Structure formats: structure tokens, C-alpha cells
């Protein structure tokens, strides 16, 4: 039986596909390709093209083959962008989750791993936040992910057979090895820090740091960065534990438990790619960006036996290698043209 990955053609989802395949598990993907790429899905994996809030598309993907469980990643992200178009985020992230839960119930599928976010916390109190910390999201994106967790919680109360957990990502960076088809899995996000810096470097421009007036040590945001390969392995462990019938906690932080400033990240990237001469510029804050978000990952280490294995320099090297791999620049140019046309 297969695991269905909604959003499995995206940057994170495609790495999770790779992690499942590495375990010899069958996967199938549902993705509308609005931010994912067809070539990120290996030829051996079935791709159903459609939106998760479309009942017919979800039904078709679930009915095409026996499904063991679902890893639900599909939706919109980016806190700052959600401030400008909040209804788009509620449609994709809240309605999409509702539709999926309804379709799972109709078929008796009772295993679900939900892609949540540390954005549900907002700016944390103190140095680090655990899963029981106050959730005060500061953007419609964070709110939509929190509502998604509530929907799953309430459905599990109404349908006790539903085994589930939500993985609250912190800042996901890096890239793993290319697929069996030779495709590098690159983060082409228009808003994430690594691709923003890499775009600047590729054009011989100074990268930007958004804000230097936060109440932090160097004035820039503090974030907990985790490598996408480590994150993908955490998803597979969650899925396998649910298969075993393990009772998992409602939510787990997935991070390194270490805060790094945006200035520190940019300086590390410049050093690793040997462009320290270029420097960087500080510009105004982006809306919806909390000052500090660092997660306590004790719970996931205890229950999953999972610990992130890649340090910051490895994350940068993996991401830069993928960014400069054959075919990546052409895909980036096509994405840029599509953004400009849209």
C-alpha cells in the first residue's frame, strides 16, 4: 500500500518522496504544480495533478491505488505574502485540510501526518519554545496552519480511529542528492532566505537582510534552521510509527533547537561560497515576521529517536550545490518568468 503525499512535487515534498523511496516504500503524489515541479517527482512515482481543496482531485488520487496514509503538505506558505492575500491562504490551507479529512473519513483511511509550522507560535517568550508553548500566530499563514491542527484534532475526537500527528517545521533549508532521474531538488521559493541570497549572488548583487531593529542580539530575526533531508527523515519516521499503531503526540517541533540570526546566516553563506567581498544590505522589515522563533526538539528525539544530523555549513553547501547544478538555472528562470507574467 502507498502513502499519498499532497504537495509532493514541491521542494520539501519531493525530499519526503525520496526519503520514502529510500525505505523501499510506495508513494503517490497529488500536486497542482503551482509551486512544485513535475520533474521533482521521479518517473517511478505516480503524479496526480490537482488541488487539495478540490474534492474530485483528492478522491481520484485516493482511489487510484490502495492508500495506507497521507502526508499532507499541500497549501500556501510564506507569512509575509499571507498578509497581502489572506483569503487565498485560508482557502488553500484550511479548506484544503477540511476536504482531505472528509475524503479520508469516507474511505476509512486513518493515518495522517500534517505539515504544520512554527509560525503558529508567533514571537516566542524566552529563548526557546516547546510544543505546549503559547500559540499566537502573527500572520494569516500561521493562523491557517493552527486552524489546520484544530481541524485534525476535532476530527480525531469525532473519529477516534484517526491516528495523526502534526510536524511544526522551523526554517527549512538545504538540498539533498539528486533524484534517480538526475534532477536536483532546489528551493525556488520567491520568499525563503537561501534562494533570495542565492539569486543575489548569481546576479553579482548584494543580498538583503530584512530588518535590523528587532529586539535580538544583532537586530535581525533569530530562526531555527533545519536541513530538508533531516526533515524528510522525520516524516518517514512519523509515518512508520503510525503504521505500527504507536500513539503519537498531537504535535512535534522539527528543528535543531538552536537560534541563528539572519545576519549570521547571510554571513555564513557568503563565507561558504567565498563571496565575503560582496557584503549585504539591510532593508526594512517584512510584515508578519516574528523576532525570534527557536524550537525545543526534545519531544521528537524522545518519541522518534530523531535528531538533525546536518550543521549550518552542510546545509549551505548542499543548497548551493543544488542551486548551481545543471538544469537548476533554467528552472529558476522559468519560475521567474511565470512570476512576472502572473
Automatic annotation (TrEMBL):
Q: Which residues form the NAD-dependent epimerase/dehydratase domain?
A: 3-255
Pathway it works in: Carbohydrate metabolism; galactose metabolism
UniProt EC number: 5.1.3.2
GO MF annotation terms? UDP-glucose 4-epimerase activity
InterPro entries the record matches: Epimerase_deHydtase, NAD(P)-bd_dom_sf, UDP_G4E
Pfam family of the protein (one): Epimerase
Its cofactor is: NAD(+)
Give the keywords, sorted: Carbohydrate metabolism, Isomerase, NAD
Catalysed transformations (reactions): UDP-alpha-D-glucose = UDP-alpha-D-galactose
Query: Which EC class does it fall in?
Result: isomerase
Q: Which family does it belong to?
A: Belongs to the NAD(P)-dependent epimerase/dehydratase family.
NCBIfam families per the UniProt record, alphabetical: galE
> Mind telling me what this protein is named?
UDP-glucose 4-epimerase
Organism name: Patulibacter brassicae
